[in-house]
Amino acid sequence: MNTHDIPMILFTVVTQMCVGAFLVLGVAQVGSAAKRRDNDVVERVNRPVLYAIGPVMVFGLIVSMLHMGYPAHTLNVLHHPQTSWLSREIMFGCGFALLGFLYALLTWFRLVSFAVQRMLALLTAAVGVGLVVCESMIYYSLVTIPAWHSWWVPFSFAATTIILGTLSVVCALMITAMVRRRHEMFGIPARDHGAESSGWWSRHITGEIHTINAPTGTEEWNLSLQITKWCSVTAAVVTTALMIGYPIFTSELASGSPTAHQASEVYSGVSYVIRLILLGTVVLMLGLFVYRGALRTPREHPKGLAWLLIVVLIIAFASELIGRGLHYASLVRIGI
Hints:
The chain has 336 residues and is mainly alpha-helical. It has helices at 6-34, 39-65, 85-108, 114-140, 152-185, 200-212, 218-254, 258-264, 270-296, 303-329. It starts with 5 loop residues before the first helix and ends in a 7-residue tail after the last helix.
């Protein structure tokens, strides 16, 4: 793997994880609305995940600028949005980050109704989907690179979005439950009742942090477990589809043109084997442990499930980094 590709590997994987997380939150909000769940319960479940997405997305955008060599060059790629997928990627990426920040800001300070928050969340998720489409089309549109001008690129990018998005959400949910349980056990105050008279910072920052860390209620815990259960199933299914898709994709390359055959050799080394092993490990852990844990874990003992999900997310993230590294390593042009 070329070290020059590391910024783009991190950027694409991180942004797709953030988009996937926002999509999961959007689906959870729409599903909760359809089942007429209490808005306060849904908000209590979603907010910690939302505030975890922001810093990760900012990190991804900053890392992407390193690929330009000189960060100020980032502005140069915005000149041709009518024809350039790279220009569109930057525009959608900035739009997703700004809308996500606006959504978090309005939610934190409770400036709009829950219905408006839901509409803004759906808009942000839609822009995020546009970002993933632009990222995949940058590579798919290069017809002189057989390994990239393939159905595999949009498929694998979408798979990364779903796998890491679902796992990051449930991981955040369980970490939040673990932190709240610790506060509850050690008697850390959930809310500063004097915050209303202690100034702006205490009222809007410290007070909200205490509110977020208040003990998880029964309805909140049940919703968190339900999200964890279905997210683990979704991630396992998509990961399995990715494992099935790899041999199909590599066999197409191997039986194609000499350039495509040369690119297929990238998928015959140690990195490719490790990638498949990690994917298989994720499927097994989700099916054998996480799904069962989501059915049986009581509210008073979230720690075991939380650490299990952390391990699964780390394995999945490492697997996606390796997979994206293989993607960039398969750059073999026709005629060169």
